[in-house]
Structure formats: structure tokens, C-alpha cells
Amino acid sequence: MRLDDFERMTPDEFSAVCEAHAKTREADSRESWEQTRALAYTLSGPYMKHKTTVQRFWPLPWDEKKEKRGADRVVMSREEQKRRFEELAKRV
């Protein structure tokens, strides 16, 4: 992101960009773990006595149905968002 693009962002836009970036990183991490799990499952297949699914072979945290994660989310007021945005802008 260019500096002038950053400087023109509103606190809501900055928050949305940060959230999108975090989601992208999480998706990349999940994809990597899924690939690792599939490889381990495939390589150990000939040595398993009983057939099983990939999810039962190596359960990962997102395999379980969890409660809505919205309760974990921290919600900042407009004033807090503005103050944080100004602090970040000063650093740049």
C-alpha cells in the first residue's frame, strides 16, 4: 500500500483492510496445514490397520463445529478507532 493511500483511509477502511489481511493469512495457514495433513495421511496409509478419514486421522481445530466467533471480537468505539488510526499515521 502506498503512503498516500494509507493517509487517505478512514478508520473504518483501515479496520476493514486489517481484517481482510488477517483472514487471508489465516486461510493461507489453514491451506498449509491441510496439505501437510493430506500428505501425512497418504504416506501412512499403507501402514494403517483400519481405514479412517483424514479428519479422524489428524483432527485440526477448524474441523470441529464451533460457536460463532463473533463473541471473541473486540469492538472499538469511533473515538478509539480514530485515536489508534492517528497513532499509526504518526508512525508512518
For the terminal residues, how far apart are their CA atoms? 12 Å
Helix and strand content put the structural class at mainly alpha
Radius of gyration: 21 Å
The low-confidence runs, each spanning 5 or more residues with pLDDT under 50, are none
Tertiary shape: elongated
What does this structure look like?
The protein is mostly helical. 63% of the residues lie in helices and 0% in strands. It has 4 helices and no strands. It has helices at 3-8, 11-44, 54-57, 78-91. Helix 2 (11-44) packs across helix 4 (78-91). It is elongated. The mean pLDDT is 84.
Task: Provide keyphrases for this structure.
single chain, 92 residues, mainly alpha, 4 helices, 0% strand, elongated
Short summary:
The protein is built from four helices and no strands. It has 92 residues and is mainly alpha-helical.
Task: Give the helices and strands, then pairings.
Elements: H1 3-8, H2 11-44, H3 54-57, H4 78-91
